[in-house]
Amino acid sequence: MSIEALKERLPEYAKDIKLNLGSLAADPTLTAQQRAGAFVASALASRNAEVTRAVVSEFGAQLSPEALAAAKAAASIMGMNNVYYRFVHLVGGDYERLPARLRMNVIGKPGVEKVDFELWSLAVSAVNGCGMCLTAHEKVVRDAGLSQEQVQTAVRIAAVVHAVAATLDGEDALSGL
């Protein structure tokens, strides 16, 4: 399945999502690796098999094997971190001072440029709604030289991929009625 096939699966009421998906797939704001990795990591975070298959089919070939593994790793590690750090942030108290005691080695050695991995982690954190992680990763990528527009593009990709997944999940749920 391709992005075009995914767009065709979207109902008429999701026309804006369809248009956004098409424009972001070719958005020049990010490097090809950054854009493709943001799509892959966001698709995995969306937890929709159809969206993940289509996005990886479309964008996986644009990534080296190491970059594809790093985009997958960003989705995986942030799946854990977003839950943990959202808890720390929302509950407050002394939890912030306690060591997490969770293995996160991939963040230190992701196999791609650190800024790209951090950008993908930011996109996943947007999907998963972890404010603490969003703040931390946004600071790292901005300090590494990415512009606000580049950060915004990665989050726009995350938002649209998530919207595609939510729309298709809803349509699939309604198909049995």
Commentary on this structure:
The protein is mainly alpha-helical. The chain has a single domain, classed as AhpD-like (Up-down Bundle). It has nine helices and no strands. Helix 2 crosses helix 9 and helix 7 packs antiparallel against helix 8. The longest helix is centred in the middle third of the chain and has 27 residues.
Give a quick precis of the structure.
With 177 residues, the chain is mainly α. It contains nine helices and no strands.
Distance between the termini: 26 Å
Shape: globular
Radius of gyration: 16 Å
| The named CATH superfamily | AhpD-like
What is the helical fraction, as a range of percent?
Answer: over 70%
Runs in which pLDDT lies below 50 for 5 or more consecutive residues are none
The overall pLDDT average reads: 96
Order of helices and strands: HHHHHHHHH
Tally of separate helices: 9
CATH topology: AhpD-like
Count of extended strands? 0
The overall number of domains is: 1
CATH architecture: Up-down Bundle
Q: Largest sheet at a glance? A: none
Strand content: under 5%
Secondary structure class reads: mainly alpha
CATH class: Mainly Alpha
